[in-house]
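I would love for you to help me understand the pair of lines that follows before we discuss the fold together.
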Amino acid sequence: MYGIDLNSPILYEFASFRFFEKKEHHIERFCSVNVLLMVYQGILRFSENGEQVEVCAGEYYIQRKNCYQAGELASDAPHYLFVHFDGEWSDQTGALPYRGNFDYSALSELMLQINTASHQKYMYVEQQYLFHKLLLSLRQKAPSNTLADKLSNFVEENIAEITSLSDLCEAFHYSKNYVERLFQREFGVSPIQYINDMKIKKAMYLLETTSKPITAISEECGYFDYPYFYKRFVQKAGVSPSEWRKIIQKNPTNRDW
């Protein structure tokens, strides 16, 4: 699962509670930092580089740095804690998934402490400690057994073999309409868009971290028709795979996986 690399430096910046009014929209901005969102009431809606996201009460979501965010759809009066921080993204075992569930009753006191420490300007080392404690609490929660998590893990583990919605339906014995609705509700995108995004993110990761030929990376991500892979990659990244590899290796902070 793609998420924050807990084996790389993570630098806390700022935290605060946020309470939306009814029908309030997420702000429109280009955000240069990662933002952890922990919603404990209502529903927060926003788009990230044009992809719609919905975060419900009891869920956390990490907005990726260097992304354009907007609020085309009104949110449902969410109450949440947000934390700005800098950290690296990874798909390696041990990373904190960018999305998951949390127990508000168990973490509410720690969330309050983080908010207080930020606004009352506690020593930075104490603010950093509280944030790291929160990240570890999210990482150490009991694994979720929801169908959405199982589907997501299945896609990640079989990224090269999955090519269609039918692959998911056959593996889990659910109808196409049911899986479509589930992905829209849980991830804010269609199953096909989710699968293609995961494939391209995997390609981005391999382009940066390996010297494999681009055609080999294409096949490793399940694209055996290179022109189709090229087209999909340009749609997602805005540049060709070779151009993206040059850019990201020259400036790693531009990564989008």
